[in-house]
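User: quick one, sequence for these tokens?
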């Protein structure tokens, strides 16, 4: 209520100043009446309110775009007024000229602000000489994917192209985690800051720190989605819930966990391999090993080989909610009987825990 009262008071003051100062009187006899100068005061008040709104709710690029739009609109309005016929055409013509100025200023300001907002600060920087090209893409990083750390390795391998965008609110959240009193959270936050430093200095990645705050939205996840929508960017995250919400809102999402599952090697029953037996399984005689990507392999009659490397032959592959799980036997031995349904359920439960640990 207080904000609207202040704006109404500003408009009244602008109207009174237009009536008292008569800024259009120097344009000629027809401009000295009260109506043209009241409209001039109204135009000034409208421009002032638009500037206040831009500076309060938008970033500097949007405000700059609005200011440039007002300037261009004023020039266009001046040209149009020059074209209008001269002479005493009565009250209608006296009111038409300032109305043209008002419409031109408003249209220029709104058009410039919307154009700047749609481009985004990173696009403006690129257009100013950072080397943007047709089809250039942006990847917005969230806190989870930065802390995860694999994004630096994926970029180094050349599987992520374009510009990595780190919003200011994500950087603040990362700094908050790094300053946490909890030792584990503090270590994760510092790891994320180190990953950002690595990305910034690396020749294989291009990193931009966005200053778009989006103050009208409080939740960080919704800020990320809105920023990705404005920049027409891809959201890079490991957060399952953020992934689903962003997809529902039409934002393209890349999930590094999906990438990790996609590049896991395809192993078929009957293939031989060598693995290290690390711990005992859920059932008698079983040993458990892991592939390089963390996939769990349950080996029958391998409990006595814990801590050693063994040659095995894959006997079956089971797809679980946490990923694939392999059953195997020691090379040169007969295959174990097929697991019963209860045994499969227990094994699937064990695979979920094992994959979570990995």
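Assistant:
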């Amino acid at each position: 209520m207080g904000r609207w009262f202040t704006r109404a008071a500003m408009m009244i003051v602008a109207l009174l100043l237009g009536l008292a100062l008569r800024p259009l009187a120097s344009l000629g006899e027809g401009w000295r009446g009260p109506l043209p100068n009241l409209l001039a005061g109204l135009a000034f008040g409208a421009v002032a309110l638009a500037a206040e709104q831009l500076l309060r709710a938008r970033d500097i690029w949007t405000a700059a775009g609005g200011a440039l739009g007002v300037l261009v609109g004023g020039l266009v309005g001046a040209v149009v007024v020059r074209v209008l016929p001269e002479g005493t055409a009565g009250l209608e013509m006296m009111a038409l000229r300032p109305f043209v100025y008002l419409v031109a200023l408003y249209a220029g300001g709104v058009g410039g602000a919307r154009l700047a907002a749609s481009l985004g600060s990173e696009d403006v920087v690129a257009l100013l000489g950072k080397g943007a090209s047709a089809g250039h893409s942006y990847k917005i990083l969230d806190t989870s994917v930065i802390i995860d750390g694999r994004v630096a390795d994926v970029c180094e391998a050349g599987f992520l192209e374009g510009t990595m965008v780190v919003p200011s609110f994500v950087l603040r959240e990362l700094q908050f985690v790094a300053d946490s009193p909890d030792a584990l959270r503090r270590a994760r936050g510092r790891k994320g800051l180190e990953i950002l430093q690595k990305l910034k200095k690396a020749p294989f990645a291009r990193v931009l720190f966005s200053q778009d705050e989006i103050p009208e939205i409080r939740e960080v996840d919704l800020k990320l989605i809105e920023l990705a929508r404005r920049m027409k960017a891809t959201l890079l995250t490991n957060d399952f819930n953020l992934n689903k919400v962003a997809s529902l809102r039409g934002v393209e999402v890349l999930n590094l966990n999906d990438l990790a599952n996609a590049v896991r090697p395809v192993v078929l029953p009957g293939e031989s391999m060598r693995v290290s037996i690390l711990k005992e399984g859920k059932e008698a005689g079983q040993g458990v090993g892991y592939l390089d990507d963390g996939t769990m392999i349950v080996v029958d009659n391998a409990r006595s080989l814990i801590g050693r490397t063994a040659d095995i032959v894959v006997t079956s592959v089971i797809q679980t909610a946490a990923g694939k799980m392999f059953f195997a036997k020691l090379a040169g031995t007969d295959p174990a009987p097929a697991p019963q349904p209860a045994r499969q359920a227990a094994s699937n439960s064990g695979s979920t825990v094992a994959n979570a640990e990995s």
